[in-house]
Amino acid sequence: MREGLLIILFMIALTSLCDTVNQLFLKSAVDSLNFTPEFNFRKIFRFIFQLLIKPRLWLSFVFSLISLCIWLLVLSKADLNFAFSADSMHYVFIALASRFILKEKFGHLRWLGTGLIVAGIVFVSLS
Amino acid sequence: MFKKKVTLKILLMLILSDILETAVHFFFKKSALAQAEFSLGDLPGLVVFFKTIFFSPFLWAGLLTVVAVFIVWSTILSKIDLSVAVPIASFSYILVPVSSAIFLHEQIPALRWAGTLFIIVGVILVSLSSKERIARE
Hints:
The structure holds two protein chains of two kinds. By secondary structure, chain A is mainly α. Chain A has one domain (2-126). Chain A has helices at residues 2-31, 41-52, 55-77, 80-86, 89-100, 108-126. The longest helix of chain A is centred in the first third of the chain and has 30 residues, at 2-31. Chain B is mostly helical. Chain B has one domain. Chain B contains six helices and no strands. Chain B has helices at residues 8-33, 43-54, 57-79, 82-89, 92-103, 110-136. The longest helix of chain B has 27 residues, at 110-136. The interface between A and B is large, with 40 and 49 residues.
């Protein structure tokens, strides 16, 4: 499956990217509500209702649906254990997006962890 | 406000979420296995692919399990910090290859195990670093 490997990796990257966009929309929808977590069912229901009327939430659903479709295509071609490990590249995309789009600050530990994940994905892809 | 103490009940829930997470991927793989015949440029082939998958019980089993994972995981996170929960949950990176070897008869070369190990250590470091950030603020 050598020649197919690149296209599979590309598709896995595409699902991971869709997942990342999905998470960014979710994060921005949730952040815009200023919710502090607490066990109060009325507040939780109001929070869920307010979320459901956010267009960003529905955009995030659309992206997770696209991501699922590509994922199913990947799984029909590739071994599950390979695809599952390679899919952890979403950690990398989310790290980059949080850093450069959401301007979150990271310490060395997170860069180190992200680097190890990249190394792991390279090994898994070479195997 | 760190919640670190992993009680037996939380540990059992984490194991449950690992098993459910593995089941999700197993079900999705099963639903995709039924139809391997398509090529990417072939639009009618893709439509048939998704149509058969839509009617596969495995797909719906997988989606239901996603909901179950979400509920279990949210309960876990309400009781314990993410930075503690994620390293324990990254056990699914081992559970998925092991179950694909057993149930799907996939071959797993040594290099792939090595890569998986790197990913697990990376995931643990990333989740531990959330504590690092909060501590600095």
